[in-house]
Design a protein that fits this description.
The protein has helices spanning 2-7, 39-47, 61-68, 77-83, 86-95, 112-119, 146-152, 209-225, 259-262, 267-276, 301-305, 335-349; strands spanning 15-18, 30-33, 51-52, 72-73, 103-106, 123-127, 137-140, 158-162, 168-176, 182-184, 188-193, 196-202, 230-239, 242-249, 289-295, 310-314, 324-331. With 365 residues, it is α+β, with helices and mostly antiparallel strands. Bound molecules: adenosine monophosphate.
């Protein structure tokens, strides 16, 4: 839906494929209802489209590849294949010399002891596939807990990953067009509640030029290696002055929703420009911004709209526990005003939100 809303002013038109009859995108364009594995529906979509993208990471990469044989698809299906498998992701980081948490492969119980011995410290067992928002992972403090953790994640192929004592979680959103033109948004700082993203701050406070450059280097190396087209998010852990790559998301990303109201060009517009081979838009931020996800229930809209600098984005989805139903972007040139407004958003939602540490005067980045 948000891609289409960004694309209509550029003269584009849209159709969507989604398994749900009430998919949010159906509000803004023609909706083909069907499974992402239904090849008849995929063919229907391909026949009516010049260009296809996806914004859901669990679309089978085989479906993306099937579409790519009939029409143009971006980002490249191989990026989807890597993002869907934590082991392939780790191998990509290793190949590119990108720092990441140490890990060992766990195909089954026979690997428990060797994997634990190779790490020798508290770790997380993560399923290789279909892990998101904290699903498919279990913390393991001692070797004896591996058995239980493996049952918990569903007895599937896993990686065992060292527990990282990170200071904070950051993400970098990069964009690359077919011509190789590259752009980056400033780092965002991300805060989770119950393993779901609740708040993103952008530009992330207290970021040195070196940290920003390191993040861009990581993003660029991945985009170039994958011959990437579109927006790519890389989730990062900051440990001291260093960054470790956690995972990649080959799509417009929740931690980039702030760009709708506080960047010269939003991630949605730039994703489309990149896919179409058009010049990329300026990805600089226009001032400090906090993005707050609306989870589980839709709060009183008029109370949110009364908050200075607040812009409301609702997705038209039915409420469900921990479901992302929309977000609020709070932007202002004055960092103190953003902090005050975030506190008011928290009061409306009835949750304690972390206090943004935006400081001093702001200059464009
Ligand atoms: P993921 O699905 O890998 O993004 O993990 C979900 C969340 O779990 C992350 O946003 C972190 O807060 C936390 N997490 C994941 N991996 C680790 C790790 N190796 N060490 C510490 N925390 C982690």
């Amino acid at each position: 839906m948000m891609l289409a809303l960004a694309g209509y002013p550029l003269g584009l038109s849209f159709a969507f494929l989604d398994p749900a009859h009430d998919a949010a995108a159906g509000q803004v364009g023609e909706l083909v209802t069907g499974s992402y594995c239904d090849h008849a529906r995929l063919a229907e979509l391909a026949d009516r489209s010049d260009l296809i993208t996806f914004e859901f990471e669990s679309v089978p990469d085989s479906s993306a590849a099937a579409l790519a044989s009939r029409t143009e698809v971006f980002p490249p299906p191989k990026a989807l294949a890597v993002a869907q498998d934590r082991l392939l992701e780790k191998r990509l980081f290793q190949e590119l010399g990108i720092p990441a948490a140490a890990y060992a492969e766990v195909g089954g119980p026979e690997d428990f002891q060797p994997a634990w011995a190779s790490l020798g410290r508290p770790a997380r067992l993560k399923s290789r596939r279909l892990g998101y928002d904290g699903h498919g992972q279990a913390v393991v403090a001692a070797a004896e807990q591996l058995e239980g953790a493996w049952l918990e994640v569903g007895r599937v192929p896993c990686i065992l990953e060292e527990e990282v004592p990170f200071e904070r979680e950051l993400s970098i959103i990069g964009v690359r067009s077919g011509s190789g033109e590259i752009g980056f948004y400033p780092l965002a700082e991300n805060h989770h509640q119950a393993a779901v993203l609740r708040l993103s701050l952008a530009p992330a406070p207290e970021v040195s030029g070196r940290l920003e450059q390191d993040a861009r280097g990581i993003s660029q190396a991945i985009m170039e290696k994958l011959d990437y087209r579109g927006v790519l998010a890389v989730e990062l852990f900051q440990v001291g002055a260093s960054l470790l790559a956690n995972e990649i998301a080959p799509r417009v990303h929740n931690s980039g929703h702030w760009t709708q109201d506080a960047a010269v060009t939003s991630q949605f517009e730039n994703h489309l420009r990149a896919g179409l081979g058009w010049p990329l838009g300026n990805s600089e931020s226009t001032g400090p911004c906090a993005m707050v996800n609306l989870l589980s229930t839709i709060p009183d809209q008029s109370r949110l709209l009364a908050i200075p600098g607040a812009r409301l984005h609702l997705y038209g989805k039915a409420p469900r526990p921990l479901r992302k139903l929309g977000h609020v972007n709070v932007a202002s040139p004055d960092p103190g005003a953003v902090t005050a407004s975030v506190e008011r958003v928290g009061a409306v939602l009835g949750v304690d939100l972390p206090k943004p540490r935006f400081k001093g005067s702001y200059w464009p980045r």
